[in-house]
Amino acid sequence: MKKVYFIIAAGGVGRRFGGLKQYASVGGDTLIELTLKNIVKHCEGICEIGAFVVASPASEIERISELCQRCVGDLVAVIKGGDTRAESVARAFSYLEQEIICSDGRVSNSSDENEYPEFEALVAVHDACRPFVGKAILERIFDGFSDGEIETKKKNVQELEEKRSADFVAPALPITDTIKKSSAGFRVLENGEFVVASKTAHTVPREEYFAVQTPQVMTYDVAKKIYSDFQINESVTDDSTMAERCGFRTSYVLGDRYNIKITKSEDLEFAEFIYSREC
Question: Is residue 70, in this structure, part of any structural domain at all?
Fold first, then answer.
């Protein structure tokens, strides 16, 4: 059974939501609690959870720690996130590597880029406010990694490349709406008005586009590479973008329309509906 270390991105301050959405209630639980509970529930029989590292706003570490420990006990560590999601995830991975994995003496600190560490695991990055990850989506993601991928003996890069089915796997959904692109951008005003500069918008073929969800899963060595190379001023919205920039093969599996990310307060009504059906 594969061992998976989960990084939970919970460092946002909820500008679009109007407050810290990590504490918003769905089904009697806060979003951060519901997210952790569903991960633990649906990973059973699929993978072994090595640990959770949660990136939190600095001012909320104590409260988020209490909520997380209530769900998963000593499996969780809560650390200070960064100014962006990418920086928060990079900090969480650094903590995971230095304080959890390396402290067990299971990872080589070799600087040889052609050598994989003795310990191999999967690293999953998931949005704290995406509380409805299900068993089917996790099964599809982990099936994207071949059994030969996790090795306990050192192998060179070429030997491992021949065995790998993917470096990085993420869930995705086809887009069903008509997609427009505006060369001048657009604005949404407080009164709900959608402002697009005249004659700047055109339709693009939606069959060329898809929406990517989380959890996004990669091998330990891939995570080490993309977060070691991360520059704090980089503008990236998810981890698949970073993997692509580093030249790794990204693979996608079918996501789930109920695997929603809570972004605005009105999303909570739909979240309650999903909870009533799925939880």
Answer: yes
Residue 197, in any domain of the structure? no
| One-letter-per-residue 3-state SS of 241-267 | HHHHHCCCCEEEEECCCCCCCCCCCCH
Number of residues assigned to the chain: 279
> In this structure, how many other beta carbons lie within 10 angstroms of the beta carbon of residue 167?
24
Chain centroid offset of residue 60 CA = 20
Q: Are 78 and 61 in contact (CB under 8 A)?
A: yes
Quote the CA–CA distance of 105 and 22 in Å, as a whole number: 34
Comparing CA positions, the residue from 173, 159, 167 lying closest to residue 123 is: 167
Domain count, the chain: 1
Q: Identity (one letter) of the amino acid at 33?
A: E
- Residue 192: inside a domain, yes or no? no
Amino acid at 83: D
- Of the candidates 24, 46, 66, 43, the one whose C-alpha atom is nearest the C-alpha of residue 260 is 24
Tell me how far apart the alpha carbons of residues 186 and 171 are, in angstroms, rounded to a whole number: 28
Q: What is the tens place of the pLDDT at every residue in 207-239?
A: 999 999 999 999 999 999 999 877 765 678 899
Q: Are 210 and 252 in contact (CB under 8 A)?
A: yes
Q: CB neighbours of 204 closer than 8 A, spacing ≥ 6?
A: 179, 180, 181
Residues 209/203, Cβ–Cβ less than 8 Å: no
Give the residue numbers spanning the domain of 247. 2-170+214-278
User: Would you say residue 124 lies in a domain?
Assistant: yes
The answer to whether the predicted template modeling score (pTM) of the entire model surpasses 0.70 is: yes
CA distances from 162 to 102, 146, 159, 165, 268 (A): 27, 11, 5, 8, 45
Query: What is the C-alpha separation between 57 and 276, in angstroms, rounded?
Result: 30
pLDDT in tens, 155-200: 444 444 444 467 899 999 999 999 998 888 888 887 888 888 877 8
Type and span of the H or E element at 80: strand 76-80
